[in-house]
Amino acid sequence: MSGHSKWSTIKRAKGATDAKRAAQFTKVSREITIAARIGGPDPASNPRLRLAIDKGRGLNMPNDNIKRAIERAAGLGQSEAYEEITYEGYGPGGVAVLVEAATDNRNRTASEVRSLFTKAGGALASSGAVAWQFEARGVIECSGKFDAVGEAAIEAGAADVEADGEGVLVYAEPHEVHAVRAALEAAGVAVNAAEIGIVAKSTVEISADDARKTLKLIDALEELDDVQRVTANFEVPPEVFAEIAG
User: Fold this and answer.
1) What range does the domain containing 47 cover?
2) Looking at the domain assignment, is residue 78 inside a domain?
3) Would you say residue 116 lies in a domain?
4) 193 and 207 co-located in one domain
5) Over the chain, what HEC string results?
6) What whole-number distance in Å separates Cα of residue 157 and Cα of residue 171?
7) Per the domain annotation, does 114 fall within a domain?
8) How does pLDDT run across 107-164, given as a tens digit for each residue?
9) Are residues 64 and 155 in the same domain?
10) 180 and 218 assigned to the same domain
11) Does residue 165 form part of some domain?
12) To the nearest 10°, the Cα dihedral for 66, 62, 47, 233?
């Protein structure tokens, strides 16, 4: 199982017991607002907005919440001037970490992120220091047997396919994620979620102790209201993976 596939499993295991749905709604609402502000309020012509709305619906976000988030982008509701910032840093064991944030106060967010890295024994890095170790990819989570989904994915023009527990992860170029998703659904594949994410080009091996510390850092970062997503490039050791996913 690859690093990204393990991350997917860990996220589901944590989400199954995570009662912070209101916080999830807040993060997705910001994502919807930013996407609508940048690309317009019509999801039919704004792929990023369409993905954000799909993510909200996947969390059972009420339609009124989605509507209000779009209206904020058009200045029709109470609106904060969110800006997107990516912080780069090193965690325990030298793990490369990317922190994607949407904030209305750059100084506050930078201070909070820096503090958490420092407490974990890591440090923030300069722009470009670790970003080269990651790339944007379309990630589509599917249910079904690997062979059947894999065949449909190849026909749909996917870049790669891998097993993900009882499901399958299908990868696509960012600009093709909607077309690949539509082709998969047309072929009868059950698509659970799709997004344009940041994934590590390769992973590094670290000790189980450093892995636990890094996961604790990631949890702390993700709890910040301004943080949208955290990505790291380490391979989760089998014993640590079993502790979380089992």
Assistant:
1) 3-73
2) no
3) yes
4) no
5) CCHHHHHHHHHHHHHCCCCCHHHHHHHHHHHHHHHHHHHCCCCCCCHHHHHHHHHHHHCCCCHHHHHHHHHHHCCCCCCCCCEEEEEEEECHHHCEEEEEEEECCHHHHHHHHHHHHHHCCCEEECCCCCHHHEEEEEEEEEECCHHHHHHHHHHHCCCEEEEECCEEEEEECHHHHHHHHHHHHHCCCEEEEEEEEEEECCCEECCHHHHHHHHHHHHHHHCCCCEEEEEECEECCHHHHHHHHC
6) 10
7) yes
8) 999 999 999 999 999 999 999 999 999 999 999 999 999 999 999 999 999 999 988 7
9) no
10) no
11) yes
12) 100
Q: CB 123: neighbour CB atoms within 10 A?
A: 11
Cα 28 to Cα 33, 112, 163, distances in angstroms: 9, 20, 27
The domain tally of the chain equals: 3
The predicted-structure confidence for 98-119, as pLDDT tens digits, reads as follows 999 999 899 999 999 999 999 9
Rounded to whole angstroms, the Cα distance separating 193 from 121 reads 34
pLDDT classification of 79: cutoffs 50, 70, 90? low
pTM for the complete prediction? 0.83
At 9 the pLDDT is 65
Instruction: For residues 104 and 99, give the distance between their C-alpha atoms in angstroms, rounded to a whole number.
Output: 16
